[in-house]
Amino acid sequence: MSIPPPKNISLLSNDNSLYLSPVTASKTHPVPFPPVNEIF
């Protein structure tokens, strides 16, 4: 709870970029990505 909002937004942006890649790969190839599906 000590994490400032700007840092959270930055982390979220990075997470989104990183998650976008696996998500596309998951759609093309049925890779076991349960956490990604759960997040989305």
Can you characterise this structure?
The protein has 40 residues and is an all-alpha fold. It has one domain. 75% of the residues lie in helices and 0% in strands. It contains two helices and no strands. The longest helix has 24 residues, at 5-28. It is elongated. The model is unreliable at 7-11 (pLDDT under 50).
Topology:
Elements: H1 5-28, H2 34-39
Jot down its keywords.
40 residues, mainly alpha, 0% strand
Principal-axis shape: elongated
Radius of gyration: 13 Å
Q: Averaged pLDDT, please?
A: 51
Distance between the termini: 23 Å
- Strand fraction band? under 5%
Number of domains: 1
The ordered string of helix (H) and strand (E) elements is: HH
Q: How many distinct helices?
A: 2
Helix content: over 70%
- Biggest sheet, open or closed, and with what strands and sense? none
Structural class: mainly alpha
Low-confidence stretches: 7-11
Beta-strand segment tally: 0
